[in-house]
Every structure is written in structure tokens, then in C-alpha cells.
Ig-like domain-containing protein
Amino acid sequence: MFHGLVLFCLFFSPLIGAEADEIVSAKEGDSFTLRTGFTERQGDHETEWRFGSSRTLLIKIKLGNVFSSSDTIFRDRLLLDRQTGDLTITNIKNEHTGVYELSIDLGQTEFQKKFIVTVYAPVPVPVITRYSPQCSSSSSSSSSSSGFKRVLLCSVVNVSHVTLSWYKGNSLLSSISESDFSISLSLPLEVEYQDINSYSCVVNNPVSTQITHLDIDQLCQTCSDCDNWSQKEL
């Protein structure tokens, strides 16, 4: 779908400047897998998975034995593929955002791989409200519609790292992006009287998209019609 082409790149400040071999985006409640790149274990070489700036040990494989982290945010969430060494983390939350490091002791060399993982909340459905109807001086009477315009407002609340956009058909009209945490976003759209085009409001982040289509028939047709619905949700 065309809305899926809306892409943006927003960064969590703790991860800025970090270098990675792979970048992973995941949705809260889902799982993600960090892959070693090997199809089978590299003998009995010691292997470690670590997390965060403190390099918390998640998994250690030594002499065929597996040691798992007792860290509370990872408890009952770690799944290790014993054949490849791949690590899967289940039922993820925002607190699982961060840098993950893999190291395998190959004897005279050490294989290392770093992943930057960002966990996003699923976006809410955007809400379109009818807001501040505007009439030209020639259309101030209830029987006149010349010059009449409607101003619509598309809003989402308690969001972070999202893009909010208005579309007319498949064409992007306007958009706004925000990386702050737990804010409310609104984007206005001015629609001409008797406009029969198809409009939709889209909110998305790297892992989810929600769309609200505008029902043009619900819009008022004259200034007097608008007296009773200003600020009313469509």
C-alpha cells in the first residue's frame, strides 16, 4: 500500500553514535532474533551475548554448558538456538531497546558482532475532528456556500517516534514527524466546499501503520451547518 512508502528515521538518544553490524526494529509484545550468521556452532568455543552500556551478560556458552541471565527484564524471555547460537528475545518491551553484542572466542581470533535494537509501541488509530470552520464574507449567510472552507484536524495522543500525514488520494499533502516521548500530535487540513476528493490521515512508525479515511459526506456544507459541530469528532 502507498502508505507503506512513507519512511522516516528517528533515533533514540542513547543509541546515537553507536556503530552496529545490524539495525533491528521491533514492535512491543513481539519477538526479535539476533543472528550470528553461522549455520552451526563453531565447535566448543566460548560464546557470549551481552546487552547495554554496562554489557550485562545475557547468555554464555562454555564447554557445551549454557548459562542464562538472571536480569529481571530478560527473565523467561531468552531463547537460544543451540545449533547456530542465534538469540531470540520474546514478549519485548521498550526497555529492551539498546545495543546487543555477540562475541565468540575462536582461539587466536575473536568473532564479534553488534546489533542496535529499537522497540516501538504500535501506533494508535488517528482521530479526525472538524475544527474551526472558516467562511469568507461573501458566505456568511446560511444560504450561501461560496468561499466556504472546512478546517480538519488529525490527531494522535501518547505517541513517540511517529510520522503523522495527510493524503489526498495517493498524494502526500503534509506530514509532521516527532521523536519525543509520549506527546500528542495534530496536523490541520483545509478542505474547500464541495470537495469530493478522497482524504486520509496516516500515522506510522517503522513497525506499524494506522489509517483513518475521511468521510466527506459528514462535513457540513454551509457556515450555519457548522455552528453545531465545531470541535466534534467525525
Summary: Residues 56 and 132 are 53 Å apart (CA to CA). Confidence is low (pLDDT under 50) at residues 1-17, 136-146, 227-232.
